[in-house]
Amino acid sequence: MSKAENIVFFDAIFIMLVGAFGFGGNQASFAALQTIPFPQLAPAPPKVTDIISATAYIGWAFINLPVLIIYFISIILIFANVILTIAFNPVVNGVPYFGLMFFALQVGVIFEVFRIVRGSSSGV
């Protein structure tokens, strides 16, 4: 397995253990996950003819791409914040200073994904 696969495997086992043993006396707030707004996409182009509609939908996808990228980044940040609150906040009986190591492991996975997309994965 590559380093990224090992880290993702560690994440899965760790989340299962935290879920099995509970999150402590003070429960974390999941309200942030319930209040995620939907992205505001541009209106869809009208259907005129096949080639015009196909071209219009390609442009519509390019226009909405930054909106969707920002939306997915915000979802990832909200989810990561909730996970860090559950696992590592001392108020919720989490492990202090372990969040920094957990975050550092996730940065390694992100760089591995960039390498895979670029076409030169480490394969280690």
List the helices and strands and how they pair.
Elements: H1 3-21, H2 31-34, H3 50-88, H4 98-118
Helix pairs in contact: 1-4
Gross morphology is elongated
Number-wise, the strands total 0
Global structural class: mainly alpha
Q: Helicity, in percent?
A: 55-70%
Low-confidence stretches: none
Compute the CA-based radius of gyration. Answer: 20 Å
Number of domains: 1
Report the β-strand fraction as a percent range. under 5%
The mean pLDDT is 75
Count of helical stretches: 4
Major pleated sheet: none
**Order of SSEs:** HHHH
Cα end-to-end separation: 7 Å
Report on this model:
The structure is a single chain. By secondary structure, this protein is an all-alpha fold. The protein has one domain (3-38, 49-118). 67% of the residues lie in helices and 0% in strands. It has four helices and no strands. The chain has helices at residues 3-21, 31-34, 50-88, 98-118. It is elongated, with a radius of gyration of 20 Å. The mean pLDDT is 75.
Main attributes of the structure:
single chain, 124 residues, 0% strand
Brief write-up:
With 124 residues, the protein is mostly helical. Helices cover 67% and strands 0% of the residues.
